[in-house]
Predict the structure of Alpha-1,4 glucan phosphorylase.
Amino acid sequence: MAYRQLQNHSIAGAPPAYRQIAPRVTLSRRPLRVSAVAELNKTAAVVPESTALVPAPVDIANKLRYLFGRNGDYTVADAYQGTSWSVREKLIDSFNKTHEHWKKEDPKFIYYLSAEFLMGRSLINTVYNLGLEGEYAEALNQLGYEMEKVADAERDAALGNGGLGRLAACFLDSMATLDLPGWGYGIRYKYGMFKQALRNGYQVELPDIWLTKGNPWELRRDDVKFEVGFGGRVERRKQGSKEITVWTPSEKVIAQAYDNPIPGFNTPTTSNLRLWDAVPLTEFDLSAFNAGDYDRAMLERERAEGISAVLYPNDSTPEGKELRLKQQYFFVCASLQDVLSRFKAVHGNNFDLLPEKACFQLNDTHPTIAVAELMRLLLDVEGLDWDKVWTITTKCLNYTNHTVMPEALEKWPVKVMAKMLPRHMEIIEVINEGWTKWLGGHLKDLAPEERAKRIAAMSIIHENPWNKEEMLVNMAYLAVVGSSAVNGVAAIHSNIVKDEILNDFYQIFPSKFQNKTNGVTPRRWLAWCNPELASLITDTLGTSEWINDTEKLAGLRAYASDKAFQAKWAAVKKAKKAKLAELIKKVHGDEVNPNALFDIQIKRIHEYKRQYLNVLSIIWRYKQLKKMSPEERKKAVARVCVIGGKAASAYDMAKRIIRLVTAVGDVINKDPETKDYLRLYFLPDYNVSLAETIIPAAELSQHISTAGTEASGTSNMKFQMNGCLIIGTWDGANIEIAEETGIDNVFVFGVRAEEINQLRKERKNLKTDPRWDELMRDIEGGMFGDKDYFKPLVDSVNNMKVGNDWFLLANDFASYLKAQEDVDACYKDQSEWLRRSIMYTAGSGKFSSDRTIREYAEDIWHVTPSRPTA
Ligand code: NBG
């Protein structure tokens, strides 16, 4: 518990500047004061020793002058650049200090290996985390700008698909905030998550070229480069009395490191996210060029750069692309070499010490090739023997499972792996031999037939059930066998991992399996995105310590029924709703009723997340409103429904769902009879920044996955923190959120996870609700146009010859409508609604990623804080 004490101590001892959040400057853009700039320019000519001593406005002007050749007459985009490059130096000062300290102390490090980091924007987060918000807001003010608008000029770093990548970003924030020595490792994709646009209501995907204007938040490390090989052959050679294994790859690229400093909050610690860019071994094939073969001269560059070019736009959908395996190996290989080279610089070849100095978290199966790569590096490069290497490897690695979707549990054809990574394939075969042999011994008491069956079911290499000719490497099995700990991401999900997905393994190693319920950073997702609510909370609790210790939010429970407090709470929500209304106006050109209930569903579009069910209930609402007299309508609760999210480019059904949302919106938003009472908007290009505007404005949010399918969800936690009520199924983290908030405060509906398998079998005999049948006929009959396009969507849930409603929309439909009625009734009682809203924020303490990371640090990583002096 020494660890927790240190944390408490550190909060209390923080410099006062960190304790209060300065109010954001709210002036709109003022004309530039030319005289002020001229004055600044005079001062700027004197360059003092440390930029930390230069007043921020001068420094911003300096940056614009020397980095961009601008003298006054700045645009907002310039103001963003000048500010960011100025803030960057302070960030790097903190980064250097932290790393000097860690180098001296040599603590154990956690390395978070993840193919995705969905960072979003950095400027606001950096100035607030470093406690520089007052200084920079004032500086921009002097230059005639408003911080919020300037921050808007930044492009999102969208190197992730959704929850998994954003979780990794929240974890980095918490690791730094808790002073835990730890880095993230990933890929510096040139093109991040695609930009989503709507054309005639259909999704179109555009490339996300996010690096064109330079990136002030990264630092290229020209001295940190590693070779990464692919393909080729493996040979045994004699070396003295020993036989050694030599892998000669047929293709090599260089992994070039870029560091992205990660500032902690309320601490001098700034840690690191190291991302790898793939570059060619030789810049340019001059001989080919000279011989007139221009294409060949460029070939190697193109091939190398292709590796880190694009993030796969996938979220729990199958993706069998070889390039993806190449990307995975590329970043894992570079990261492990990097860690080992630092380890060796301090500890030489004393590799027994490695598990005391380094551990790696595998974020889903994507980095699982690390099992074989760490083995290879220690066996072939360092010359250690197998048993020792296996012990070290399994002590260093841990694996987090993030999904129950069978199609997302990666399996690579042996053929593909043997060709691309021949040495790794050999190593995996040897691991599997040892593993199955060990299992044989372990299960010796079983009857031979049963034993053989169990062993086959747990073999890392197995037949493809759909194609008996093909053998597959099961990456989840490799991860489980090669790790010390395996965890799920919410209580229910961890149980499903133990009882279903990896039950065979759980029976063999029960103590390996753990739960680590996800969390989100309260800095980005409450304090910085909703400063108005943050100020109200701080004023009410008399302290801002809740930003580091979210359990303190429970203090709000005492005010939940206090009318005066409720009024203040409501005023903040109203202001945030006005912001979202502005955004809707900007995107769709429509004014919306600011007093309507703002009802939101934002997440990747997926059948299991059931946006379709939401649309059906909206259509039903529309039809009810149409039937009412004008007088009756006046009594109805008005709603503005917003849906946002991207569909994976190859996910046809998800794209049809988007089109259904836009088509229904087109009809109901224009209907003069009902448009004051119901709207539906699809907000395109949902990303982290959009979430930062939408979430604080939400009053009701939808988390309605088929029970047992959403591993956790993390936006549910963000909504909860911002006092937004939840309508949801008994799934993922919804369950724990309901426990913390009070189950009666949550609109829970639908069947439970235990019932799903049976219901799936019986679905064809289900007597559907007449309202359901009516809606199916409406869509099929062309009420929203595009009849043919919507036919497969209707069939997928309603035509048992075509689809069997795998995600059980029909089963939950009636109880969903009932829960929606409960929502309306509650909203009519504003005092009750506000009481619940306050109870949500008050109950969100558990869902800080600080709590999650503390649990990982204590139970899995065994890493302790190490804080540099301020
Ligand atoms: C996602 C789950 C979410 C969960 C996040 C973070 C994948 C593979 N999984 O429910 O679907 O919240 O991971 O754990 O993206």
About this structure: The chain has 36 helices and 24 strands.
